[in-house]
Design a protein that fits this description.
Layout lengths: L1 E2 L2 E2 L19 E3 L3 H9 L3 E3 L8
Parallel strand pairs: 3-4
Antiparallel strand pairs: 1-2
């Protein structure tokens, strides 16, 4: 999904990460600690799900 400079890429059916290649900053929203660790090592920024959907 794309809109206003924002591109949303959903994980696969088993919740596995998908690689997004490019030179723009990447923000991953997840509560998964292992995924957080892996994407941070690759240079992505990480936020928890409550930052985009309060509750």
């Amino acid at each position: 999904m794309t809109g206003g400079g924002l591109r949303t890429v959903r994980a696969g059916p088993l919740g596995r990460a998908r690689r997004v290649v490019g030179d723009r900053p990447v923000l991953v929203v997840t509560a998964d600690r292992e995924l957080r660790r892996r994407v941070t090592e690759l240079g992505a920024e990480v936020a928890g799900p409550r930052t985009v959907r309060p509750g």
